[in-house]
Amino acid sequence: MRGSEHNFVTGDDRGGIAVSTASVFYTGDSATGRFALDLSSPMSTGFQYDALTSNLRTGQVYSLGTGSTPIPNSGGTVTTLIALDGTTSVPTGAVVTLSTSITVAYGRASSRAGTAWCCTRVRTCIRSRCPRAR
Q1: Is 113 helix (H, G, I), strand (E, B) or coil?
Q2: Which of 3, 83, 8, 19 is CA-nearest to residue 43?
Q3: pTM here?
Q4: pLDDT the model gives residue 133
Q5: Residue 116 phi, psi (nearest 5)
Q6: 129, 96 Cβ separation under 8 angstroms
Q7: Sign of the CA dihedral 13, 125, 77, 63?
Q8: For 33-56, how does the pLDDT look when each residue is reduced to its tens digit (9 = 90+)?
Q9: Angle at Cα 18 formed by Cα 20 and Cα 56, nearest 5°?
Q10: pLDDT, tens digit, for every residue of 72-120?
């Protein structure tokens, strides 16, 4: 296993992590960084996604959101998963609407990835609303 220093790209540790079929994304205090799957070639995406997650089965990366707006570190009400490009992290335009909204408090917007679910730090799991591999 190899590690990679992210501070010069993302700033201090802060938020979510997600893995696509092409990249690893990590959010720090100043930006979301993109790394090759072997954690080499760190670079800023130019965005800051505080609530990243991904479907590990499909490699699809998401940000928790309210409509088409990503949830900030200050929290809010999560109503959607916003699909992000797995190489650039630019929103693809696809949005998955959750069947139940989730309230996320300040500093609790980061999430964890799964194969057909994601869990927020407030211990709420979203199941069967994440798109599954076809």
Answers
A1: coil
A2: 8
A3: 0.78
A4: 36
A5: -155, 30
A6: yes
A7: positive
A8: 999 998 888 998 999 998 888 888
A9: 55
A10: 888 888 899 999 999 999 999 999 998 888 888 766 555 544 444 454 4
Q: Do residues 43 and 33 make contact, with C-beta atoms less than 8 angstroms apart?
A: yes
71-77 LR contacts (CB < 8 Å, sep 24+): 71/104, 71/109, 72/109, 73/14, 73/15, 73/106, 73/107, 73/109, 74/106, 74/109, 75/103, 75/104, 75/105, 75/106, 75/107, 75/108, 75/109, 76/103, 76/104, 76/109, 77/101, 77/102, 77/103, 77/104
105/23 Cα distance (integer angstroms): 28
Question: How many CB atoms neighbour CB 77 within 10 A?
Answer: 13
Distance CA 103, CA 131 (A): 22
- Backbone angles phi and psi of 89, in degrees to 5: 70, 10
Dihedral angle, C-alpha 68, 69, 73, 75, nearest 10 °: -80
